[in-house]
Specification:
The complex is a heterodimer of chains A (398) and B (388). Chain A is an alpha+beta fold and 398 residues long. Chain A contains 12 helices and 8 strands. Chain A has helices at residues 7-23, 26-30, 45-57, 76-88, 97-110, 113-125, 239-251, 256-278, 287-315, 323-345, 362-369, 380-391, and strands at residues 130-133, 149-153, 156-167, 174-180, 191-197, 203-209, 215-228, 232-233. In chain A, helix 4 packs parallel to helix 8 (256-278) and helix 10 (323-345) packs antiparallel against helix 11 (362-369). The longest helix of chain A is centred in the C-terminal third of the chain and has 29 residues, at 287-315. Chain A starts with 6 loop residues before the first helix and ends in a 7-residue tail after the last helix. Chain B is an alpha+beta fold and 388 residues long. Chain B has 10 helices and 9 strands. Chain B has helices at 7-20, 42-50, 69-82, 88-101, 104-115, 231-266, 278-307, 312-338, 349-359, 366-378, and strands spanning 121-124, 140-144, 147-158, 165-173, 179-189, 195-200, 209-220, 268-269, 272-273. In chain B, strands 1, 2, 3, 4, 5, 6 and 7 form a 7-stranded mixed β-sheet that branches. In chain B, strands 8-9 form a two-stranded antiparallel ribbon. In chain B, helix 4 packs antiparallel against helix 6 (231-266). The chains are: A alpha+beta (398), B alpha+beta (388).
């Protein structure tokens, strides 16, 4: 066993590192940004659009995509390296995350040549920003029970319904949505994956403020929205199967995205702890706190190592083992433990938020924000059900 | 990026697992609550010798298989899975210490015998208290003639009665002055005058534990493993022990989870298998998360110690701490899922629980191990995504 980079991978890492050194915007580097992603301050949108465009020009957007679609066909190991270096450089996040990681691959698998040509390049460049329209007020964990309908009318669908938790819908040009095209169907049957132009008449985006006081996600209302039939991705009424190729990705153990970034937050956490100690808050000297820090560090390391095992298996052409399925759950729990600890390290200062707080309330934001990590993209309870049923083979409980 | 067992290691693992599946861990009926230890059947030991296991980490020049810590880890993990008793692990760790010590006389005397399955060894490192570190060694070594005189009581020694020779850690003393500051490691043969071995009744019937008392035990100069201060060698040996023990724990965790899942699928109540109830499902899922993290931690500890990475001692401490905590929690959960039957002597699940409790303090308890990791993390300048 060997964790060192191969010569090819070492060259890849160095190339990226050099590029990031030259391209991460200076004003971005200086300011501490909101951790755990999924947040765009009003003034940040132009910076992030520009960043996405620069990444694509440098050949660093969608590196896992096949080369024929503008990616690098990067290996899983290179993907790990990419996420590590992005975290090391504290680079801005990718605005088009949902499209690059979820919708893009789905489109590659199921789209017509016209659909691919129309959208894939623009996803990479950031010309088209995409949001996901899956969950509904009555369809969260039980997504298959969704009710937004798309009725056939000539060469179009007429879409009526409501989506919720749609991140960045307020900034998005396009939405990939799961809708019910067979009115007589229930559950998984009769759904279609439909792409909808967000400028279509009849669409209303209403912001939802989260517990951090930030606006990231939205309700999206569809009132008699006409969508060309050509916007269906994959077969009609087979959308559940089509979408699950993306949902599998989102819920998979590819906590690649998180392991590296979490290490950076951890470094910041230790630095903050030292500063608190200098201010007379004794937490970092306490055995109990030191042990908690050690435990968080251990789990972060294990998460990273689990990824290394997964990358090794995939690189060898083997089926991923159990370590693949535990990543999402493991990383979400670690993030919460880490930010609970952040509060402890601050002693009574943990009561302060906003600009009067330590690091302008960065840690209070993170503390609140991590509650979503065990809810979004598949709740911890659903993760455990999936692990129990699909990996351990326990009988379905319904 | 290569962080899984290779083809040969996997084959070793499969064959070891298959072979050891023939060993059924159980403890003989207790008279007064303390389990009676079971011994490894002689024919099983013979097969292991034939397969080259005792010499797995012994260089070929001494009749061994010439493999390293990773192959040792693979075997020990499978032994942990089956709760195989016997001095195999104690011996293998002692072999590592002998190899690194560089005393060729001792190596020639013992390594071929170990490889042939004729000799067992063990380490006697701990004095009173729970601090395994070199700084806490209190047993005394005085110069005597052209050798040494050892005086002290070593505690929680694994397999002390089975060992043909014991590596004892003692602080070096000048005869008329105080301690010279350094630590010495001495190989003391069974039957040495003044050495008393006392095996103690233990919570885990699959691992023999005892005390080794040394009353003016005379050893020749040639019995000293290494000239100078052996504290770094002792630290190295402790880290190897922690890393390999972490793998033993992973084996135990795997089996405990397997038994649990099998039971949950089979046991029916309220007209359905209990494994279909969410509380049981969620408990098992959490057990799997712990197991996979523990596995990575153990692999990394062995790799780091084997390759002498800067993180080696921290990695070994981390694996020991995490795996022991996870093992205890997992086996407690395992008993819980088994319900009433999990609380019977007859069902083997309690043996894994006992193993989990007793492996925790060995070679460094979790509290001390976490503090070692904390020191690595907090007191260094930079922990951000270090290269491995």
């Amino acid at each position: 066993m060997d964790l060192r980079d191969s010569p090819t991978d070492a060259a890849f890492r160095q190339e990226l590192r050099n590029w990031l050194q030259a391209h991460v915007p200076d004003d971005w580097k200086r300011q501490r940004r909101h951790p755990f992603g999924g947040h765009v301050e009003p003034g940040e949108e132009p910076i992030l659009r520009q960043w996405q465009s620069e990444l694509q020009q440098g050949g660093w957007a969608g590196i896992s995509w096949p080369q024929e679609y503008g990616g690098r066909g990067a290996t899983v190991t290179q993907r790990l390296i990419f996420d590590e270096e992005m975290a090391r450089a504290a680079a801005p996040p990718l605005l088009n995350f949902a499209a690059i990681e979820i919708f893009g691959p789905t489109l590659m698998m199921w789209g017509t040549p016209e659909q691919k040509q129309a959208h894939l390049p623009r996803i990479l460049s950031g010309e088209e920003i995409w949001c996901q329209g899956y969950s509904e007020p009555d369809a969260g964990s039980d997504l298959a029970s969704l009710r937004t309908r798309a009725a056939e009318d000539g060469d179009a669908f007429v879409v009526d319904g409501q989506k919720i938790w749609s991140s960045f819908a307020h900034l998005s040009d396009w939405c990939f949505a799961l809708v019910r095209t067979d009115p007589a169907s229930v559950k998984h049957a009769g759904l279609t994956l439909l792409i909808i132009d967000m400028r279509s008449p009849g669409i209303t985006v209403r912001p939802i403020v989260n517990i951090c006081g930030a606006h990231d996600f939205n309700e999206v209302f569809f009132e008699a929205v006409r969508v060309p039939k050509a916007n269906a991705i994959g077969p009609l009424n087979d959308g559940w199967r089509v979408a699950n190729s993306s949902l599998g990705f989102e819920r998979s153990g590819l906590g690649f995205f998180f392991a590296a970034a979490y290490h950076r937050y951890f470094q910041e956490l230790v630095d903050m702890g030292r500063r608190m100690a200098e201010q007379g808050v004794p937490s970092l000297g306490r055995g109990t706190v030191r042990q908690k820090l050690a435990r968080v560090y251990a789990q972060l390391t294990m998460l990273r190592l689990n990824n290394a095992r997964l990358a090794t298996r995939i690189g060898r052409g083997e089926t991923p083992g159990a370590e693949a399925s535990t990543g999402r759950l493991f990383s979400s729990l670690i993030s919460q433990e880490m930010m609970d600890l952040a509060m402890e390290l601050q002693g009574p200062h943990s009561m302060l938020a906003g600009e009067g707080g330590i690091d302008d309330g960065y840690w209070q934001y993170a503390f609140l924000r991590t509650r979503a990590n065990t809810i979004a993209g598949g709740t911890a309870e659903i993760q455990r059900n999936i692990i129990a049923e699909r990996i351990l083979g326990l009988p379905r409980g319904r | 990026m290569n962080f899984e067992l290779d083809e040969a290691q996997r084959m070793l693992q499969e064959s070891a697992r298959e072979f050891l599946a023939g060993y059924k861990a159980k403890a003989a009926e207790p008279e007064h609550g303390a389990p009676v230890p079971t011994a490894l059947p002689a024919d099983m030991w013979r097969t292991m010798v034939e397969a080259g296991w005792p010499g797995i980490n012994i260089p070929e020049q001494w009749g061994g298989a010439g493999y390293g810590l990773t192959e040792l880890m693979v075997i020990v993990q499978e032994m942990g899975r089956a709760l195989v008793p016997g001095p195999f692990l104690s011996t293998a760790l002692s072999v590592e210490c002998l190899k690194a010590g560089g005393n060729t006389g001792l190596q020639e005397r013992w390594l071929p015998a170990v490889a042939a399955g004729h000799a067992a060894l063990t380490l006697a490192l701990l004095d009173a208290g729970g601090d395994w570190s070199p700084g806490a060694v209190r047993c005394q070594a005085f110069p005597a003639g052209d050798g040494y005189r050892l005086q002290g009581v070593k505690r929680f020694v694994t397999d002390p009665a089975a060992a043909d020779a014991i590596i004892v850690a003692a602080r070096l003393y000048e005869e008329s002055a105080g301690p010279s500051g350094g630590v010495g490691l001495f190989l003391v043969e069974r039957g040495a005058g003044g050495m008393l071995v006392d095996v103690q009744a233990a919570l885990d019937p699959a691992r023999s534990i005892g005390t080794v008392s040394l009353h003016n035990v005379r050893v020749p100069a040639a019995a000293r493993l290494q000239a100078g201060d052996a504290a770094p060698l002792l630290e190295q040996t402790l880290s190897q022990a922690r890393a390999v023990l972490a793998a033993e724990m992973v084996g135990g965790m795997e089996r405990a989870l397997e038994l649990t899942v099998a039971y949950a699928k089979e046991r029916q109540q309220f007209g359905r298998p209990i494994g279909s109830f969410q509380a049981i499902q969620h408990r098992c899922a959490d057990m799997l998360v712990q197991l996979e993290g523990a596995r990575s931690a153990a692999y990394y500890a062995v790799l780091a110690v084997d390759q002498g990475l800067a993180s080696a001692h921290a990695a070994a401490a981390m694996a020991k701490a995490y795996c022991s905590t996870a093992f205890r929690q997992l086996t407690a959960s395992a008993i819980q899922v088994h319900g009433g039957i999990g609380f019977t002597w007859e069902h083997p699940i309690h043996l894994y629980y006992r193993r989990a409790q007793t492996v925790e303090p060995l070679f460094g308890g979790a509290d001390d191990m976490w503090e070692t990791v904390a020191g690595w993390v907090i007191d260094r300048g930079d922990v951000a995504l270090e290269a491995w």
